[in-house]
């Protein structure tokens, strides 16, 4: 009896889901590339079926009308670099999270992080590694896709790959076998590890092309160019892509030449490296917020005490990347700072010299193209997923207006609708 009731409920839900239409209007519609006034957007089921000037878009009968005063309608935002299995290091340091917290505990937290991300208007997120929580991200993604919990659509890395000796947690007694925040592999063993990660559900392969393991703790390449090429070859043949954590110029260069599609962090990008990335169609994911927030956790009083060298350097490299013309996507390394505060990265992009309009593009169309999702999300146009966000104000002029979220829809399902 109970089972029958459940089946009936699911059928009723599926029916209303497939037939429901929405007629959305806003003062401004940002379609992923351009800003329009006087537009309307029609959603049927999980898809956008029409978007354009009100005169050309016919309002369907029995649709639910959505409109807010002084509003901007945008595609669902795309977080390009999250760690849903981490939370701010000023609450619990990274070593403790990785070594002492169980995967179950971390997954419980991740479900809340996923919800906060979605409600902040980020309907898609690329997650760059569980940092010691195995393939819990693959399970989290499944629970979201099945509607068990609310969260953004996910692209997940799984464990990620590091070279032996480079990654943390570090400086424990060497008599102990310490679990690392990612999977170590080298040389020909990389072939097996890449395939194993793919088999366990990785949507892409994330590799640390360098790490702070230099003689003086500086960022130094961890893999040879040949190793990176091998990883890329094995990854590509599965129809997936390689993305690289890389800060030093040498590691970025190797990652780009090996075929990586995105460079994460890129702290030492300059004009020359930016141009090389551009030539190879590589997208830069800056993670400005991670550097800013970690500096603050270490005691920097922003706006009061002098700016730390790593923040000054990050600003300089971001400006050079801008000048080089390399595609710049949006990804903040959120997890280092609270999930749901993803817009912080976008505010820093503006603070460091990018126009708000371009920052909006970075978190929508640029990220969508960089992650091969442009036929699904990142734009408002007929045929794409109904991932839509409405905010008060005009984020194309004031990026912080993205914090004034009124409405969030993912796959045609409304998750937030503030009266
Ligand atoms: Zn990261």
Commentary on this structure:
With 419 residues, the protein is α/β, with parallel strands linked by helices. It has 2 domains: 19-75 and 379-417, Roll (Urease, subunit C, domain 1), CATH 2.30.40; 77-370, TIM Barrel, CATH 3.20.20. Helix content is 34%, strand content 21%. The protein has 12 helices and 22 strands. It has helices at residues 2-19, 94-100, 103-119, 136-145, 189-199, 225-236, 249-258, 271-279, 288-297, 309-324, 343-351, 356-370, and strands at residues 21-25, 28-30, 35-37, 39-44, 47-53, 64-66, 71-75, 77-82, 122-127, 153-156, 161-162, 183-184, 205-208, 210-211, 220-221, 242-246, 262-265, 283-285, 327-328, 388-392, 405-410, 413-417. The strands form 6 sheets. The protein has a 6-stranded mixed sheet with strand order 3-2-7-20-21-22, with no helix packed on it. A 5-stranded parallel sheet has the order 13-16-17-18-19, with helices on both faces. Strands 5-4-1-6 form a 4-stranded mixed sheet, with no helix packed on it. α8 crosses α10 (309-324), α9 (288-297) runs antiparallel to α10 (309-324) and α11 packs across α12 (356-370). The protein is globular, with a radius of gyration of 22 Å. Zinc ion (ZN) is lined by residues 81, 83, 128, 333.
Keywords:
single chain; 419 residues; alpha/beta; Urease, subunit C, domain 1; TIM Barrel; six-stranded mixed β-sheet; five-stranded parallel β-sheet; 21% strand; disordered N terminus; binds zinc ion
In short:
With 419 residues, the chain is of the alpha/beta class.
What gap, in angstroms, lies between the N and C termini?
Answer: 38 Å
Going by CATH, what is the homologous superfamily of the largest domain?
Metal-dependent hydrolases
> Tally of extended strands?
22
**Please, what is the oligomeric state?**
single chain
Give the low-pLDDT segments.
1-16
CATH class category of the largest domain: Alpha Beta
Order of strands in the sheet with most strands: 3-2-7-20-21-22
Number of helices: 12
CATH architecture of the largest domain: Alpha-Beta Barrel
Identify every distinct bound molecule in the structure, by name, code or SMILES. Answer: zinc ion
| Arithmetic mean pLDDT | 95
Return the domain count.
2
- Radius of gyration equals 22 Å
Largest sheet: 6 strands, mixed
> Helix fraction?
25-40%
Main structural class: alpha/beta
Fraction in beta strands: 15-25%
Quick one: overall form? globular
> How is the CATH topology of the largest domain named?
TIM Barrel
